[in-house]
Amino acid sequence: MLSRVADSLYWLSRYVERAENNARILDVNQELTLDFKNQDLTGQRQHWEPIIASLEEKELFFKLYKDADADSVIRFVALEPENPNSIRCCLSAARENARTVREQISSEMWEQINRLYLYLITDAAENLLATNPYEFFKFVVDGSQAFQGITNATMTHGEGWQFIQAGKSIERADRTSRILDIKYHILLPMGEQVGGNIDLVQWGAVLKSCSGFEAYLKLYQGKMVPWKVAEFLILHSEFPRSIRFNVDALDVALHRISGCPRNQYSNSAERLSGRLCSDLDFESISEIFGQGLHQNLDRIQSRLNEVDDHISSIYCRWMEPEAQGQTQAQS
Hints:
about 325 residues; mainly alpha
């Protein structure tokens, strides 16, 4: 497969997944505000600023907006054209990548990504976000999931499909770590305690952001325990949005691309993904909290970025190194 094609398929998938996860984060945070209706400006900042922090866009945000209130953050993450990681810009980048590989993807895939993008640049999308944000977020999440389903059903599961799986998996692992990190950044209101009602509501929101609320309750018989939530989203081997599950899926995709058995490695990307898989297989949640949840999540994000860098250097040699870093937004 041409390096240009591999790169476009990989980033097409990453951008679609990123748009979906941004919609999930905004949706759940919007729901949480209903539980804390009487927040002052300080309370709103405490509630919404962690989203900007987790996306590493604070500097850009405060260039464009005065305060981190609900309206500003939702607008910035959803439709802001100057934010390269807004939902609109992610789907624009996904569509551009899809356009360059029209001959490699199915017509149904192209129609779905095109439909999503064309709607988001209309006044109707602006109005829907302003009047009914829940329906706006649902449209994005449903559209992204439909794209993944269409991809699985209409594209041959060869090398190109594996690059799409690798992109989805690395992006999903990264975003789950950032969703968890939002909880770290949210300070409990004065007078509240760790394990108190507000703390547990926030942990429930973290699960909902990853569509893991019901799966968690079934597994743990309805007991909302913070360290178990973190364990579920980081280390569970069968939940499709856990970090461990997606790092494993990434490693599988990379080995299927190269044809190398999983108990070996043929390049540096496979070596790094395999090492991260092994660490997550044998790490315990007590060790993670002992090291510090935030610090551990930071390390996971750094290691995922390192795998991404090596994927680019191995499979995107058609570009100069400087151009590689400029073509796609950084994770």
